Amino acid sequence: MSTVDKTLKLLGYLKTTSPELGLSQFTRLSGDDKASTHRRLTELTRAGFLEQDPVTKAYRLGAALTRLALTREQSFPLAENARRVLERLYEQVAETVHVSIVQGEDGLGTLAHIDDRSHGNRVYIEPADVLPFHATASGIVTLAFAEPAFRDKILARRFDRLTSETETDPAVLALHLEDARRSGFGRSEGAYEPDVFSVAAPLFGRDGTCKGAIATAMPKARFTETSEERILAAVAKAASDLTSYWGGELPRKLKATWDYLIE
Fold it and tell me: pTM of this prediction?
């Protein structure tokens, strides 16, 4: 891993559940020595990507990230349209819904989400988490429709087992990708979080490449044969709408596959 990769990876350890971390915590999470970690934190702070509390000395995300996020959204508005489509999708499925976009080779980052507010037993989205390609419905379907070279590069790596249901064999994962390309949907049953079922559909940009996925997640017990077609139809329509908002177009074969679902 390059020095730049190691430096930027430090930002990913900050989450809504741990918005501030100290030097020792960063050192433990990164697995690097304290001197190297301190040097990288100092560089990020100097550039405005981190701020350091003058009293506790803990680090938090800096204002430079806000500026970059605003610049990105004003130049290439993705989040606003994503939230609009998610509101409609949530009304139809009454389960947690989210849009995730590719973050390089690490996985997908959450662009927008709506947590379920209609059930006591629900799935929550941690927006700072990076969703792995191999263990999530969004990751599977994104990889299924990704460029072959990118897909092959991801499948060549070693995968972590996150739950007892996580598939780590690249050959088996390749079969899951084939299923996702054939149906247009990625599925995950307890592979990322135990007892959570999720289904996702791919999103495409102006250049025709798959940018990420739109998904719904729920306790496994609530995904039944009765609800399946309704949920698949809602997710497919949402993916079609958001792809259009982003200036993209569904691949012809995928559009034909979804004809029975999208009116």
Answer: 0.76
